[in-house]
Amino acid sequence: MTSLSHQDLVQLLDNKVGSMLLDFEIQEAARLAHEILRLKEEQNAVILGHNYMSPELFYTIPDFQGDSLDLCRKAATTDKDIIVFCGVRFMAETAKILNPDKTVLIPAEKAGCSLAEGITAENVRQLRKQYPGVPVVSYVNTYADVKAESDICCTSGNAAAVVESLGTETVIFLPDEYLARNVAAETGRHIIFPNHTGGTSTALDYQMIGWNARCEVHEKFSVEDIKLTRKQFPDVMVLAHPECSPEVLNASDFAGSTNQIIKAVDESKASQYLVLTECAMGDNIAAAHPDKEMLRMCNIRCPHMNEITLQDTLEALKQTRYVVEVPSPIRDRARQAVERMIAIG
Protein backbone atom coordinates (compact mmCIF):
# COMPACT_ATOMS: atom_id res chain seq x y z
CA MET A 1 0.00 0.00 0.00
CA THR A 2 2.91 2.43 0.61
CA SER A 3 3.44 3.03 -3.13
CA LEU A 4 -0.12 4.28 -3.66
CA SER A 5 -0.48 7.97 -4.48
CA HIS A 6 -3.36 10.08 -3.26
CA GLN A 7 -5.03 9.67 -6.64
CA ASP A 8 -4.46 5.90 -6.54
CA LEU A 9 -6.26 5.81 -3.21
CA VAL A 10 -9.12 7.94 -4.55
CA GLN A 11 -9.53 5.50 -7.42
CA LEU A 12 -9.34 2.48 -5.11
CA LEU A 13 -11.98 3.91 -2.80
CA ASP A 14 -14.19 4.97 -5.68
CA ASN A 15 -14.06 1.42 -7.07
CA LYS A 16 -14.72 -0.23 -3.72
CA VAL A 17 -17.09 2.11 -1.90
CA GLY A 18 -18.15 4.73 -4.44
CA SER A 19 -21.77 3.77 -3.87
CA MET A 20 -21.42 4.16 -0.08
CA LEU A 21 -19.47 7.42 0.25
CA LEU A 22 -19.83 10.90 -1.22
CA ASP A 23 -17.02 12.28 -3.38
CA PHE A 24 -15.72 14.64 -0.70
CA GLU A 25 -15.68 11.76 1.81
CA ILE A 26 -13.60 9.67 -0.59
CA GLN A 27 -11.17 12.59 -1.09
CA GLU A 28 -10.75 13.04 2.66
CA ALA A 29 -10.34 9.30 3.32
CA ALA A 30 -7.69 9.13 0.59
CA ARG A 31 -5.83 12.09 2.09
CA LEU A 32 -5.75 10.49 5.54
CA ALA A 33 -4.81 7.06 4.18
CA HIS A 34 -1.96 8.51 2.12
CA GLU A 35 -0.48 10.21 5.19
CA ILE A 36 -0.90 7.05 7.29
CA LEU A 37 0.88 4.94 4.70
CA ARG A 38 3.74 7.45 4.55
CA LEU A 39 4.18 7.44 8.33
CA LYS A 40 3.86 3.67 8.48
CA GLU A 41 6.86 3.29 6.20
CA GLU A 42 8.88 5.95 7.99
CA GLN A 43 8.31 4.34 11.38
CA ASN A 44 8.71 0.71 10.29
CA ALA A 45 5.18 -0.10 11.38
CA VAL A 46 2.69 -2.77 10.42
CA ILE A 47 -1.06 -2.15 10.44
CA LEU A 48 -3.50 -4.95 11.23
CA GLY A 49 -7.14 -4.45 10.26
CA HIS A 50 -9.95 -6.55 11.66
CA ASN A 51 -12.83 -7.59 9.39
CA TYR A 52 -15.13 -5.24 11.34
CA MET A 53 -13.31 -2.07 10.27
CA SER A 54 -15.28 0.34 8.08
CA PRO A 55 -14.56 0.01 4.34
CA GLU A 56 -12.66 3.28 3.89
CA LEU A 57 -10.13 2.01 6.46
CA PHE A 58 -10.32 -1.71 5.68
CA TYR A 59 -9.43 -1.31 2.01
CA THR A 60 -6.71 1.34 2.29
CA ILE A 61 -4.22 1.05 5.16
CA PRO A 62 -3.91 -2.48 6.64
CA ASP A 63 -0.99 -4.67 5.65
CA PHE A 64 -3.10 -7.61 6.82
CA GLN A 65 -6.85 -8.02 7.14
CA GLY A 66 -8.68 -10.86 8.85
CA ASP A 67 -10.31 -12.29 11.93
CA SER A 68 -8.83 -12.56 15.41
CA LEU A 69 -6.91 -15.78 14.71
CA ASP A 70 -5.50 -14.50 11.42
CA LEU A 71 -4.29 -11.30 13.01
CA CYS A 72 -2.86 -13.10 16.04
CA ARG A 73 -0.71 -15.13 13.66
CA LYS A 74 0.43 -12.03 11.79
CA ALA A 75 1.25 -10.28 15.06
CA ALA A 76 3.26 -13.28 16.23
CA THR A 77 5.53 -13.25 13.18
CA THR A 78 5.99 -9.57 12.32
CA ASP A 79 9.50 -8.09 12.16
CA LYS A 80 8.24 -4.47 12.33
CA ASP A 81 9.05 -2.18 15.26
CA ILE A 82 5.51 -0.87 15.70
CA ILE A 83 2.19 -2.72 15.48
CA VAL A 84 -0.91 -0.59 14.92
CA PHE A 85 -3.96 -2.71 15.66
CA CYS A 86 -7.14 -1.44 14.04
CA GLY A 87 -9.47 -3.40 16.26
CA VAL A 88 -10.56 -3.35 19.88
CA ARG A 89 -8.34 -3.39 22.97
CA PHE A 90 -8.29 -7.12 23.70
CA MET A 91 -6.90 -7.66 20.18
CA ALA A 92 -4.14 -5.11 20.71
CA GLU A 93 -3.36 -6.70 24.07
CA THR A 94 -2.98 -10.06 22.34
CA ALA A 95 -0.50 -8.51 19.89
CA LYS A 96 1.50 -7.14 22.84
CA ILE A 97 1.40 -10.53 24.59
CA LEU A 98 2.99 -12.07 21.50
CA ASN A 99 5.43 -9.17 20.96
CA PRO A 100 6.58 -7.90 24.36
CA ASP A 101 9.51 -5.97 22.90
CA LYS A 102 7.53 -4.13 20.23
CA THR A 103 5.44 -0.98 20.50
CA VAL A 104 1.75 -1.77 20.08
CA LEU A 105 -0.67 1.07 19.37
CA ILE A 106 -4.46 1.16 19.32
CA PRO A 107 -6.08 4.14 17.56
CA ALA A 108 -8.83 4.67 20.17
CA GLU A 109 -8.22 5.20 23.87
CA LYS A 110 -10.86 2.72 25.05
CA ALA A 111 -12.28 0.59 22.20
CA GLY A 112 -13.68 -1.93 24.67
CA CYS A 113 -15.82 -5.03 24.21
CA SER A 114 -18.97 -6.14 26.01
CA LEU A 115 -17.73 -9.72 26.09
CA ALA A 116 -14.30 -8.84 27.44
CA GLU A 117 -15.91 -6.68 30.10
CA GLY A 118 -18.34 -9.45 31.01
CA ILE A 119 -15.83 -11.48 33.02
CA THR A 120 -12.88 -10.78 35.32
CA ALA A 121 -9.77 -12.69 36.35
CA GLU A 122 -11.30 -13.07 39.81
CA ASN A 123 -14.37 -14.73 38.25
CA VAL A 124 -12.06 -17.30 36.63
CA ARG A 125 -10.22 -17.96 39.89
CA GLN A 126 -13.54 -18.53 41.66
CA LEU A 127 -14.66 -20.97 38.94
CA ARG A 128 -11.41 -22.90 39.35
CA LYS A 129 -12.16 -23.21 43.07
CA GLN A 130 -15.69 -24.41 42.36
CA TYR A 131 -14.54 -26.90 39.72
CA PRO A 132 -11.00 -27.96 40.70
CA GLY A 133 -8.95 -29.61 37.99
CA VAL A 134 -11.31 -28.60 35.15
CA PRO A 135 -9.40 -26.84 32.31
CA VAL A 136 -10.42 -23.32 31.33
CA VAL A 137 -10.97 -22.31 27.69
CA SER A 138 -11.25 -18.55 27.24
CA TYR A 139 -12.50 -16.92 24.08
CA VAL A 140 -9.89 -14.60 22.61
CA ASN A 141 -12.43 -11.80 23.22
CA THR A 142 -11.16 -11.40 26.79
CA TYR A 143 -8.64 -9.13 28.45
CA ALA A 144 -5.10 -10.24 29.20
CA ASP A 145 -5.64 -10.94 32.91
CA VAL A 146 -8.43 -13.40 32.06
CA LYS A 147 -6.24 -15.11 29.45
CA ALA A 148 -3.55 -15.43 32.13
CA GLU A 149 -5.96 -17.42 34.32
CA SER A 150 -6.86 -19.75 31.41
CA ASP A 151 -5.33 -22.94 30.06
CA ILE A 152 -5.96 -22.13 26.41
CA CYS A 153 -7.71 -19.51 24.29
CA CYS A 154 -9.93 -20.02 21.26
CA THR A 155 -11.57 -18.05 18.48
CA SER A 156 -15.06 -18.50 17.09
CA GLY A 157 -13.51 -20.43 14.21
CA ASN A 158 -11.58 -22.99 16.25
CA ALA A 159 -13.57 -23.12 19.51
CA ALA A 160 -14.88 -26.67 19.04
CA ALA A 161 -11.44 -27.93 17.98
CA VAL A 162 -9.86 -26.33 21.05
CA VAL A 163 -12.41 -27.95 23.38
CA GLU A 164 -11.91 -31.35 21.76
CA SER A 165 -8.11 -30.98 21.88
CA LEU A 166 -8.15 -31.01 25.68
CA GLY A 167 -9.31 -34.63 25.77
CA THR A 168 -11.16 -34.05 29.05
CA GLU A 169 -14.69 -34.95 30.03
CA THR A 170 -15.46 -31.45 31.36
CA VAL A 171 -14.32 -27.96 30.40
CA ILE A 172 -14.98 -24.43 31.59
CA PHE A 173 -15.76 -22.24 28.56
CA LEU A 174 -15.73 -18.45 28.95
CA PRO A 175 -17.26 -15.90 28.65
CA ASP A 176 -19.74 -15.87 25.71
CA GLU A 177 -22.99 -17.62 26.62
CA TYR A 178 -24.11 -18.09 23.02
CA LEU A 179 -20.76 -19.27 21.69
CA ALA A 180 -20.58 -21.71 24.61
CA ARG A 181 -24.06 -23.06 23.87
CA ASN A 182 -23.20 -23.44 20.18
CA VAL A 183 -19.91 -25.22 20.93
CA ALA A 184 -21.64 -27.47 23.46
CA ALA A 185 -24.18 -28.49 20.80
CA GLU A 186 -21.43 -29.06 18.23
CA THR A 187 -19.38 -31.23 20.59
CA GLY A 188 -22.35 -33.05 22.16
CA ARG A 189 -21.91 -31.65 25.67
CA HIS A 190 -24.46 -30.71 28.29
CA ILE A 191 -23.74 -27.18 29.52
CA ILE A 192 -24.55 -25.43 32.79
CA PHE A 193 -24.23 -21.78 33.81
CA PRO A 194 -23.35 -21.41 37.50
CA ASN A 195 -23.50 -17.60 37.37
CA HIS A 196 -27.17 -17.56 36.35
CA THR A 197 -27.99 -17.19 40.04
CA GLY A 198 -24.53 -16.52 41.42
CA GLY A 199 -24.12 -19.96 42.97
CA THR A 200 -22.92 -23.40 41.94
CA SER A 201 -25.35 -25.42 39.85
CA THR A 202 -26.76 -28.55 41.43
CA ALA A 203 -26.86 -30.34 38.06
CA LEU A 204 -24.91 -33.58 38.15
CA ASP A 205 -24.77 -34.39 34.45
CA TYR A 206 -22.72 -31.77 32.65
CA GLN A 207 -19.63 -31.60 30.49
CA MET A 208 -19.27 -27.84 30.00
CA ILE A 209 -19.46 -24.94 32.42
CA GLY A 210 -20.32 -21.64 30.77
CA TRP A 211 -20.67 -17.97 31.66
CA ASN A 212 -23.37 -15.42 30.91
CA ALA A 213 -21.68 -12.64 28.98
CA ARG A 214 -22.96 -11.76 25.51
CA CYS A 215 -21.85 -9.65 22.57
CA GLU A 216 -24.01 -6.53 22.53
CA VAL A 217 -24.13 -6.70 18.73
CA HIS A 218 -24.80 -10.37 18.06
CA GLU A 219 -27.44 -10.77 20.76
CA LYS A 220 -29.63 -8.28 18.85
CA PHE A 221 -30.17 -10.61 15.89
CA SER A 222 -33.33 -12.70 16.09
CA VAL A 223 -35.10 -15.54 14.34
CA GLU A 224 -37.81 -13.03 13.46
CA ASP A 225 -35.23 -11.02 11.51
CA ILE A 226 -34.48 -14.10 9.44
CA LYS A 227 -38.14 -14.97 8.91
CA LEU A 228 -38.99 -11.48 7.71
CA THR A 229 -36.00 -11.44 5.37
CA ARG A 230 -36.85 -14.84 3.90
CA LYS A 231 -40.44 -13.71 3.39
CA GLN A 232 -39.25 -10.82 1.23
CA PHE A 233 -36.25 -12.61 -0.32
CA PRO A 234 -37.04 -16.36 -0.47
CA ASP A 235 -33.69 -17.30 -2.02
CA VAL A 236 -31.49 -15.40 0.44
CA MET A 237 -28.50 -17.17 1.99
CA VAL A 238 -28.31 -16.30 5.71
CA LEU A 239 -24.87 -16.42 7.34
CA ALA A 240 -24.51 -15.97 11.10
CA HIS A 241 -21.63 -15.57 13.52
CA PRO A 242 -21.43 -18.10 16.40
CA GLU A 243 -21.85 -15.27 18.92
CA CYS A 244 -25.51 -15.23 17.83
CA SER A 245 -28.01 -17.33 19.74
CA PRO A 246 -28.35 -21.04 18.97
CA GLU A 247 -31.86 -20.33 17.68
CA VAL A 248 -30.49 -17.84 15.15
CA LEU A 249 -27.78 -20.26 14.05
CA ASN A 250 -30.36 -23.03 13.61
CA ALA A 251 -32.46 -20.74 11.41
CA SER A 252 -29.45 -19.73 9.28
CA ASP A 253 -27.89 -21.46 6.28
CA PHE A 254 -24.29 -21.09 7.46
CA ALA A 255 -22.53 -20.35 10.75
CA GLY A 256 -18.88 -19.47 11.12
CA SER A 257 -16.20 -16.99 12.05
CA THR A 258 -15.82 -13.78 10.08
CA ASN A 259 -13.20 -15.36 7.81
CA GLN A 260 -15.38 -18.42 7.32
CA ILE A 261 -18.36 -16.22 6.43
CA ILE A 262 -16.28 -14.32 3.88
CA LYS A 263 -15.11 -17.57 2.30
CA ALA A 264 -18.67 -18.93 2.19
CA VAL A 265 -19.88 -15.85 0.31
CA ASP A 266 -16.86 -16.08 -2.02
CA GLU A 267 -17.78 -19.65 -2.94
CA SER A 268 -21.59 -19.41 -3.00
CA LYS A 269 -23.73 -18.74 -6.04
CA ALA A 270 -26.77 -17.57 -4.06
CA SER A 271 -28.69 -14.59 -5.40
CA GLN A 272 -28.82 -12.62 -2.12
CA TYR A 273 -26.94 -12.73 1.19
CA LEU A 274 -27.80 -11.65 4.72
CA VAL A 275 -24.77 -11.53 7.02
CA LEU A 276 -25.66 -11.51 10.73
CA THR A 277 -22.62 -9.91 12.32
CA GLU A 278 -21.15 -6.43 12.73
CA CYS A 279 -22.56 -4.48 9.80
CA ALA A 280 -19.28 -2.94 8.60
CA MET A 281 -18.27 -6.43 7.54
CA GLY A 282 -21.36 -6.58 5.35
CA ASP A 283 -20.14 -3.38 3.70
CA ASN A 284 -16.69 -4.87 3.20
CA ILE A 285 -18.10 -8.03 1.62
CA ALA A 286 -20.37 -5.93 -0.62
CA ALA A 287 -17.36 -3.88 -1.73
CA ALA A 288 -15.47 -7.07 -2.60
CA HIS A 289 -18.46 -8.54 -4.49
CA PRO A 290 -20.23 -5.84 -6.51
CA ASP A 291 -21.88 -8.64 -8.49
CA LYS A 292 -23.56 -10.10 -5.37
CA GLU A 293 -26.55 -8.58 -3.60
CA MET A 294 -25.94 -8.04 0.11
CA LEU A 295 -28.96 -7.43 2.34
CA ARG A 296 -27.37 -5.55 5.23
CA MET A 297 -28.89 -4.78 8.62
CA CYS A 298 -26.78 -1.71 9.23
CA ASN A 299 -28.69 -0.49 12.25
CA ILE A 300 -26.50 -2.95 14.19
CA ARG A 301 -22.97 -1.54 14.50
CA CYS A 302 -20.43 -2.28 17.22
CA PRO A 303 -19.87 1.04 19.03
CA HIS A 304 -16.38 -0.07 20.04
CA MET A 305 -15.19 -1.08 16.58
CA ASN A 306 -16.72 2.15 15.32
CA GLU A 307 -14.24 4.12 17.47
CA ILE A 308 -11.38 3.09 15.15
CA THR A 309 -11.12 5.71 12.40
CA LEU A 310 -8.59 6.82 9.81
CA GLN A 311 -8.11 10.12 11.63
CA ASP A 312 -7.36 8.42 14.95
CA THR A 313 -5.06 5.91 13.26
CA LEU A 314 -3.11 8.81 11.81
CA GLU A 315 -2.86 10.45 15.23
CA ALA A 316 -1.73 7.18 16.79
CA LEU A 317 1.24 7.10 14.42
CA LYS A 318 1.98 10.83 14.66
CA GLN A 319 1.98 10.90 18.45
CA THR A 320 2.83 7.26 19.28
CA ARG A 321 -0.52 7.52 21.04
CA TYR A 322 -2.41 4.93 23.11
CA VAL A 323 0.46 2.54 23.68
CA VAL A 324 -0.81 -0.85 24.86
CA GLU A 325 1.02 -2.40 27.80
CA VAL A 326 0.52 -5.73 29.55
CA PRO A 327 2.40 -6.34 32.84
CA SER A 328 5.00 -9.09 32.44
CA PRO A 329 3.57 -11.58 35.02
CA ILE A 330 0.19 -11.46 33.26
CA ARG A 331 1.75 -11.36 29.80
CA ASP A 332 3.90 -14.45 30.31
CA ARG A 333 1.00 -16.58 31.56
CA ALA A 334 -1.41 -15.27 28.93
CA ARG A 335 1.11 -16.00 26.18
CA GLN A 336 0.96 -19.72 26.92
CA ALA A 337 -2.82 -19.77 26.45
CA VAL A 338 -2.63 -17.75 23.22
CA GLU A 339 0.20 -19.79 21.72
CA ARG A 340 -1.68 -23.01 22.44
CA MET A 341 -4.63 -21.57 20.50
CA ILE A 342 -2.45 -20.57 17.56
CA ALA A 343 -0.88 -24.03 17.46
CA ILE A 344 -4.31 -25.64 17.01
CA GLY A 345 -5.23 -23.26 14.17
Report on this model:
β1 (about 45-50), α3 (about 55-60) and β2 form a beta-alpha-beta unit. This protein has 3 domains: about 5-110 and about 305-320, Rossmann fold (3-Layer(aba) Sandwich), CATH 3.40.50; about 115-215, NadA-like (Rossmann fold, 3-Layer(aba) Sandwich); about 220-295, NadA-like (Rossmann fold). It has helices at about 5-15, 25-40, 55-60, 70-75, 90-100, 120-130, 145-150, 160-165, 175-185, 225-230, 245-250, 260-265, 280-290, 310-320, 330-345, and strands at about 45-50, 65, 80-85, 105, 135-140, 150-155, 170-175, 190, 210, 235-240, 255, 270-275, 295. The protein has 15 helices and 13 strands.
How many H/I helices?
15
Quick one: overall form?
globular
Strand order of the largest sheet: 6-5-7-9-8
CATH topology of the largest domain: Rossmann fold
Cα Rg: 20 Å
Write the layout of secondary structure elements.
Blueprint lengths: L5 H12 L5 H20 L2 E6 L4 H4 L5 E3 L1 H10 L4 E5 L2 H10 L4 E3 L15 H10 L5 E4 L4 H5 L3 E3 L4 H7 L5 E4 L2 H11 L3 E2 L15 E2 L13 H10 L3 E5 L5 H6 L2 E2 L2 H10 L4 E5 L2 H10 L4 E2 L15 H10 L8 H17 L1
Parallel strand pairs: 1-2, 1-3, 3-4, 5-6, 5-7, 7-9, 8-9, 10-11, 10-12, 12-13
Briefly characterize the structure.
The chain is α/β, with parallel strands linked by helices and 345 residues long.
